[in-house]
Amino acid sequence: METVDLLGVHIHLVSMEEAVARIEEFIQDGSPRHVVTADASAVLRAHRDPRFREILRDADLVVPDGIGVVWAARLLGWRVPERVPGVELVERLCALSAQRGYRVFLLGAAPGVAEEAARVLATRYPGLCVAGTHHGYFRPEEEGRILAMIQGSRPHILFVALGVPTQEVWISRHRGTLGIPVCIGVGGSFDVLSGRLRRAPRWMQHLGLEWLFRWYQEPWRWRRILALPRFALLVVKARLSRKSSS
Questions:
Q1: pLDDT under 50: residue ranges of the chain
Q2: Which among 33, 63, 12 is positioned nearest to 157, based on CA atoms?
């Protein structure tokens, strides 16, 4: 599967269909795999944080979540088929799981949110087996109990919504112990699926303005928004550097 090096992060050039197909291959193989949904803020953090960058390099699949990643890759001359938004990937994988009999576990978000997201998904995709849920506000001393709970439920897919980079660090630390075929960080997807947050209108999604709608709903995220121009500047510099060296 083709990858590109975007500011030190390896992004897989996959469409939604290709990502879902690859993840099903992981499930059938059974070995523990780590899937990352990378937006511009995740790439920028990895560019500055060698430890986080190494975690992303060790991941088995890194999909282009945000429009910023797609724009950056295309500006640097690579063909990126489309965005693979985390929330849409969750839905596609739940639809697949309902068809195939795969079990899913939802970990993360505020108390009650994962449970509500699970109810919505189970209603939307009849036959979906939700092996369990747990919120993300647990103390370090509770972690062993939660790991045992997840292992005991034997899911095929573990959706982890602890935010970047916490979810990726957590998965990297525990995926070997858990032995789950697919662990995937999904950021704020549970908030959207549960109805706690609304997704941007279609026209904003098509124009690449979903980040602006998210900022409108959660103004406290302004620091993440400020990362976007820094990311864009680094990408432009990388393009100019490539042009000057060619």
A1: 222
A2: 33
